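---------- Forwarded message ----------

FYI, see the Phosphomannomutase record below. Original note from H. follows.
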Amino acid sequence: MATATLKRDEILLLFDVDGTLTMPRSTVTPQFEDFFYSKVKPRATIGIVGGSDLEKMFEQLNGQKILNEFDFIFPENGLVQIEKGKEVGKQNIIAHLGEKTLQRFINFVLRYLSELELPIKRGTFIEFRNGMMNVCPIGRQCSREERNMFAAYDTEHKVREKMIADLKKEFADVDLTYSIGGQISFDVFPHGWDKTYSLRHIEANFKFKEIHFFGDKTEKGGNDHEIYNDPRTIGHKVNTPDDTQRILTDILKL
């Protein structure tokens, strides 16, 4: 069936945020926002599924108005579920793993980072969220310039990839998955708690003829990989909001 002929309640468009609706850790542009809300929203049900928490989504997408603009918001890979501005469900990593395992993991990460030599380090190396932990070797309290510097350093030296490999060995007995997203950090969560978790909520409550997903980190190990390749979705690989706009214009015949 041609996507452009589907009714709004028959098609769901799901979007990553970083590198898809915005440039990495930047805010959405007025031009893209106007295109998205005036042309795309009337044609399809829309949702965002990101690795970050809701507050970071607010920062990048111009505040709490997204609660009214999006039909679905899935922060933290969909471990928090929001429909039409109201939270309708939440999963919790503490209850799933238990305090003893969590402390073992956190202690190991802090020891590991204390011995890791990097050009610079700042603060907040582990960020705790409902459905995951976010590990940042440089520390999340870095400037935009420092963020870009680490991203280039990591591309060359594979800091995050090597750390994940070491964590997989150390915690082979624990139900954990590791996923690189964004420029400076990686997410840690139980198996199956990747972005496909959002699809569980959708399948249980709604019937769409097509579900499309747009994301940039679609390679293996990236935090869009699983949902991009899931048989329930039609995946679209993008690198910038311009790519997203071009593909939307094409598939919806805007």
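H. also flagged this: The chain has ten helices and eleven strands.
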